[in-house]
Design goal:
The chain has nine helices and 15 strands. Helix 2 crosses helix 4. It is found in: Cytoplasm, Cytoskeleton.
Amino acid sequence: MSKIWASHSPPVVVRCRPFNLAERKANAHSVVEWDHVWKEVSVRTGGLADKSSRETYTFDTVFGANTKQIDIYRSVVCPILDEVIMGYNCTIFAYGQTHAGKTFRMEEEDPLAGIIPHTLHQIFEKLTDNGTELSVKVLLLEIYNEELFYLLSLSSDVSESLQMFDDPHNKRGVIIKATLMNAYSSLSRSVFSVTIPMKETTVDGEAFVKTGKLNLVDLAVSENIGHSGAVDKRAREAGNINQSLLTLGRVIIALVERTPHVPYREPKLTRILQDSLGGHTRTSIIATVSPASLNLEETLSTLEYAHRAKNILNKPDINQKLTKKVLIKEYTEERTSETGSSCNS
């Protein structure tokens, strides 16, 4: 059984990273300003002399270049970890241009630990304190050139490309199978999932299992292929990302406008994220941008996607199932009640 909570729009957080070495060497100037109090990000779209041409966006939280990893973690992740333990599906997107700081936000090791190390540490800490009978399952997927790869394989000499199809009986949603291929690129998208089935008992002694799930998603934003200098293989990678993200944009627009058909099934990315966008998942979005004039187009694209996503509605529910023993007991009691009613009528 599941308990459905009220619809909610995903909180959207924006973080502008500091200038990197390449931007400093190119003498790029800053085009991004942020206001923590008003929760606004403003982008100057004219030249250095043009102070009036700008686009301004409002978000749930805005972080500047001096923000620490732990501050982002406490603001975005901590509030939803308890909900994962309660049995909710939760997703956090890190969304932005290549080199905008998404993976750094997700994966960096101590002393600058990102979201994934902090999350795993705190999940096990909470579960230890909880004393519940449970198990923890971890999945790490990469989407590269519309191919899926399982990155936690024990095989050291080959990467596994994965096939994905829908369960015709809808018992498991999307199913993933392995085939042999080999690929790797920084222009990929990754999905890190932690699933926690927990066995608990009610005050009446009835056993049930609830399952919490947390998806941490690293999304590459579309690149301007000419701007980035991508050629041959790199250009094809960027082209696949661009096509995938165009569809993601159409999905977001369809959800915001409440259209009957949402194009989830076109690229693998939107199929994997289907329940996180307009489904039964509690979703948060971290949009990462560069402050540099070199990346003006990509920064505006990221902020447009993030601003649209604020209007998506999700309906989170708890994944809670009664054990077979309890289901049989309920069925027997129901049948006994029906028999008694028939005899008395």
